[in-house]
Amino acid sequence: MQRARTHDGVPLGEHIAAVASELFYKDGIHVVGVDRVAAEADVTKRTLYRYYGSKDDLIAAALRRSPNITFPREGTPRERIAGAFRAMAEMLRVEAYRGCPYINAAAELTNPRHPARVLIEELTTRRREWFAKRARELGAREPELLAEQLDVLFDGALANATKRRVDLPALAALAAAEALVDAAAPAPSRRTTTSARTPRRRAS
Question: Do residues 89 and 45 lie in contact, with contact meaning Cβ atoms separated by under 8 Å?
Answer without folding.
Answer: no
